[in-house]
Amino acid sequence: MTFSLGIDAGGTYTDAVLIQDEDGCVVESGKALTTYPDPITGIKNAMKLLDPEKLKNVSIVSLSTTLSTNTILENKGFPVGLIMVGEFHIPDAIPASMYCVVAGGHDSNGEEICPLDIEPVRKFARSVQDKVAAFAVSSLFSTRNADHELFVKKEIFELTGLPVVCGHELSQDLGAYERAVTAFLNAQLIPITYKFTQSVVTEMKASGMNATLLMLKCDGSVVGIDEALEKPIETIFSGPAASLMGAAHLSGLKTCAVIDIGGTSTDVALIQNGLPEMDESGAVVGGWSTRVKAIRMETMATGGDSHVFATDDPNQKIHLGPIRVMPLCRAAILYPGFLNKLKDIKLPPRKYLSEFILPSVFYIRTGFVPMELTPLEKTHYAAVDEFPASWSDLFDRLGGQMPLSLALESLVKKRLIQPIGFTPTDALHILGDYTEWDQEAALTGAEKMERLTKKNPKELALYTKNRVAKNMSKSLIEYLVPGIESKDVEKILSGEFHTKFSISVPIILIGGPSKAYVSEIQNIIEGDVSAPKFSDVGNAVGALTGKGVKRLEIIIKENKVKQKGAAAFENKLEEIREENGEEKNEPKNKKKIDEKKIDEKKNEKKSDEKKSDEKKNEKRKEPDDLDKRCDGRCSKKCKSDCKAFGGNLAGKEAKGADGKETKNPAGQEESNKTPDGIVPGKMILEYLVFHDGKRTVFKNYSDAYDFACAAGQKTVLDVMKKTGLKEEQIEINFTKKEIRTGTENPIETKITFVGVETAKNEDFKCNIPDFVKFINPEKKYREEK
Q1: Rounded to an integer, what distance in angstroms lies between the CA atom of residue 641 and that of residue 636?
Q2: How far is CA 674 from CA 585, 590, 624, 647, in A?
Q3: Is 469 left (phi over 0), alpha (psi -120 to 50) or beta?
């Protein structure tokens, strides 16, 4: 008997769910604390709660994680150098601090606008190679021709040996700047994702598993681990995507709104008739628009681990997030002796108070290797060790100097130190709504902040819980009503106007503390709000209930060009004249051919472009001397030779010697055509197929369409087979959108291919038994429920 294993490494918990392949029954489940930043210990702890004999018979392991999302939200990605090729319009806000813009790029037909200027790229790569972990490159219309991106990638890799991500590898959508952002964020995530997946592989081997490893994408589909490592940006919402699928599965609802309460962020999404609502414009995370197709989702930087703090603010404002910190109640369990240190800490001098210097804030090292630290960062990093250090500890270790907020903030963003502080999770512990860890530590932390918040522990806890619930409700309304003004939502949610929002679809809460917020949200909005059984492991369930899906788009575009081969044909006709003893007479409109071999291809392209522009507004001219001689009235030998090239005019009108129009016999063709139908100087249509950053040219639409269909289906099939599916388990459908202007063939066609796994157990939702095993993270035994 074989099993499948779902793992979700979230910001706070790591969940593992084991299901039986034969009937889809959940047989065991484990929940452990996520270890940050390396999740391997948390994964091990969750998997230890499962039957080791069953683990040996696991055939598929599927992962979902909020790791990538949290990295971007907290701006803690690895440093990346960004290269933009072409005339980019760069907005004021750009995610990259190290970037360069060089000449190059292509047009919408994939033709080169100007040559790639590679020397500035080499200079830039050398100057930053010791400061970055990877590079990203985006070129104008690289989705139509990726030559410049690929050349930059090759050059940088040869110079530095560092990974290089291309925009066209991640998206075939137009928008060079958005592809640049996507490639940049993807490059930031590569080292983090690699470390995460290596941790899972190591534990799989240690457990005796020989299984296919998959990862859930942000559209709710799964991919093989090789593709996941190459494109980690596509996992930015894999955790929330898993929770959406898991929520619908656990509730048994085909249509519902889902609020996924995580440690760092909370996500809102909708599933209708069993299918997630997709965002075709691309996912937005951390304020950055990407070209990644994802489930449409509203993400807010508020979660169970969001930092709750107040400083010496005359307005006595209490802040919530966006920085993620370890809850005080959790730190007290993980670090014996921490509670006593928390009780002894004093309020720092008021002029030094900040989010990073407070009586409730402590620091530990994360385990990441430091890169390119300033002297100030080095001294502060050296003052932090593996046991929580307060501002007072740092003061002593810095030789009697106060720690600086800027240095601490920079080390946090570089993921070198992890702050500990008061959180919504601590607030729930104070209220008794959620008591997984140390309640006394939460109370002590609230007491230490009382002089700054002007609230006693219970008041602070109630305020924090209500603030989090309002943020969730606000995100839900803004998701369901796109375009609604945020200030209007806040006004109604304030409760001051005797008005409430009413939600007609069921609202399902997912996440560790989800049950604690049900009644609070019901007090704010009207609707059916619930947290189903096993909602605290909904993500791991969702990782195993989503079908395998692969989406692909291929574009066919009409293009007008001057017919090739005209010059060769005209030269052949001159040879015929000479054989007939006729006087050489070049056509009036014949152009000289540049025979230079240097940059021959580029010159041909430029010449074709120039001729094309000239022909756009040019009226059809009368045939030249050569055309008249070959209209069926020239010598017998000329006629026969012309026929070999295509024969006389076929049913076409021509002017005779008297100037009157005459028709040639039916079945005859124009004498100025080659066997391939070439007409000197004539504008013809060709069809460009754009796929995978390449373009393929066809003479007619039907051949282009057939090629696109075959290529799309083959690509989808090959990708899905890598996830462990067999060909008979994959169903591929496609839809097309056409742009027409009254012509026989469309001027542009977009074909969207969707491959779907068909072999899923439909009875899974009814087979979750009551004997599923869970674990309270601070306990050492299984707890039957």
Answers
A1: 9
A2: 20, 17, 17, 9
A3: alpha
Is cis: bond before 37, omega within 30 of 0?
Answer: yes
Burial class (CB in 10 A: 0-12, 13-18, 19+), 229: middle
Q: How far is it, in rounded angstroms, from Cα 40 to Cα 748?
A: 49
In the three-class reduction of DSSP (H, G, I as helix; E, B as strand; rest coil), residue 600 is classed as helix
Closest alpha carbon to 441 in 456, 421, 459, 462: 421
Q: Quote the CA–CA distance of 782 and 544 in Å, as a whole number.
A: 23
Strand (E) or helix (H) holding 215: strand 212-216
Tokens standing for 366?
């994360």
In sequence order, the 6+-apart residues with CB closer than 8 A to the CB of 542 are 6, 8, 64, 216, 241, 242, 243, 244, 245, 246, 247, 249
- DSSP-assigned beta bridge partners for residue 64: 8
- Residue type for 231, please? K
b/e code 729-758 from CB counts within 10 Å (16+ = b): bbebebeeeeeeeeeebbbebbbebbbbbe
**Residue with tokens 């702890």, as numbered in its chain:** 45
CA distance 326 to 424: 11
SS3 69: helix
Q: Per residue in 36-73, pLDDT tens?
A: 666 778 888 999 999 999 999 998 898 887 777 777 77
Write the CA distances from 56 to 52, 198, 209, 782, integer angstroms. Answer: 7, 19, 5, 20
714, two tokens: 């083959």
d(CA 600, CA 107): 20
Residue 64's SS3 state is strand
Question: Does the reported pTM lie above 0.85?
Answer: no
Omega before 322 within 30 of 0, i.e. cis: yes
Q: How far is CA 377 from CA 384, 401, 405, 408, in A?
A: 11, 14, 11, 8
Amino acid sitting at position 783: E
Helix (H, G, I), strand (E, B) or coil at 79: coil
Q: Which range, of 13-22, 133-142, 568-577, averages the lowest pLDDT?
A: 568-577
pLDDT tens, position by position, 507-527? 999 887 889 999 999 999 999
Query: How far apart, in Å, do the first and last CA atoms of the chain sit?
Result: 25
The span from the CA of 459 to the CA of 128, in Å, is: 50
Sequence-distant (6+) residues with CB within 8 A of 134 are 78, 80, 81, 162, 163, 164, 165, 187, 188, 190, 191
The token duo for 374 is 């300033």
Q: Which residues of 194-224 are buried (b: 16+ CB within 10 A; e: fewer)?
A: eebbebbeebbeebebebbbbbbbbbbbbbb
Q: How far is residue 113's CA from residue 148's CA, in Å, rounded to a whole number?
A: 11
Q: Distances in Å between the alpha carbon of 775 and those of 168, 249, 500?
A: 44, 22, 39
Side-chain half-sphere exposure of 647, counting CA atoms within 13 A? 10
Q: What are phi and psi of 532, to 5 degrees?
A: -70, 165
Give backbone dihedrals phi and psi of 756, rounded to 5 degrees, phi first.
Answer: -130, 135
